[in-house]
Task: structure prediction
Amino acid sequence: MAQTNRSIEDVPLNRFHRLLTLRSAGGSFVDGYVLSLIGIALMPTAAALGFNSFWEGLIAASALIGIFFGGFLGGWLTNHFGRRRIYFVGPILFVLASLGQYFVQDAQTLFLLRLLIGVAVGIEYPVATSMLVEFLPKNSRGPRLAGFIVIWFVGAAAAYVVGELILRLGGPDAWRLVLASAALFGAALFILRLGTPESPRWLLSKGRDDEAEKIIKGVYGPEYSLANLPEEPRSLKLSVWSLMRAGYGRRMLFVSVFWTCSIIPVFAVYAFAPRVLQSLHLEGDWASIGSVAITALFVVGCIAATRMINSLGRRNLLIFSFLTSGLALFGLGLFHDSNALVILLLFGAYALFIGGAQVLTLVYPNEIFPTEIRAEAVGIGTSISRIGAAVGTYLVPIGLQDYGIQQTMYAAALITMIGLIVSWAMAPETRSLNLQQAAALD
Result:
């Protein structure tokens, strides 16, 4: 068959791309599910095991601490051992740690199991996104990576719905079933990923050209070869520690700061949604309904941002998202004594508008770093962002108790505005570039 001159970054989406998107984004669903479950289960778990607010905050933050270690570990493993092998580590850890939570008897053991779940989530970010982005055509790259965040919030919404149902129907130890329920999704993810090939870009970066060629032909057709793969020159050999010296330090700073500022308020809300809403005078069923409604609006906001990511552009979307969501948080602080409708409208506005920054947390780090350090850059961004998220989550119950809801909301608004300033100063535009162009230093 005659060879084609068409770049594989310009091919239309095929069945393989759609299946790979499902396999990779499935990890985001499980991530959202396991991380958000604690928001539903924490209060009954604390009551059953008898631990205090210190352990509440620590257990709520434990998965975020685990993500810090898992991000570094996952990036390193993915770069050194390949995308395909590490693709299965997260699902295995999800199953084992989730089942372990069913039998937990004390706060310390629960903390360690939640920490392990966080490690699994941290591993998922670099491996799942790198695997997908290295196969996708450029016009689908942004929307499909952004779609990971949509799926994350779908998983979070599922956690709240499933968790509430189990708590209402499952009896006095229902919290155990809530925490263990993630094992089912972890097992399904493992099965779904069976048969996934290795990334040809990673194989090429390791000098395994014959294997890369075989996979390209299998995925895109016999008329395609390595000649159709735009890629960085193999002579470019960068380690994670040479990232700063090679000129990528500014990009790493941008990714780390904007990612951190975009997720601190989100994770704090998810870990303590019922308590935050109660502090804003939404009691009983209003708090539960509000939690589910706000989660649904997070999904809507991310879907809208995903649709605009190519037309509006990465930079404009990020700046708009930080500005509007920051104003909504400021409004929650200013009108914290208002009626339930005003509170839900402001919280809903935050959930809707933060979607732009959320979807870009996986798009930017995968686009602006070369193959040799892509997974590790995603891992570093994941880890650094979770330091702030873990600290913020740990401090939420303390802040609510010692300073009140108004000051807590003002602090969240300030963090969001820092993200706005950094994005205004540093965010690049990559929507029309292939991976090689987007990752090249100017």
Summary: The domain at 11-196+230-439 is CATH 1.20.1250.20 (Growth Hormone; Chain: A;). The chain has a mean pLDDT of 82. The two ends are 39 Å apart (CA to CA).
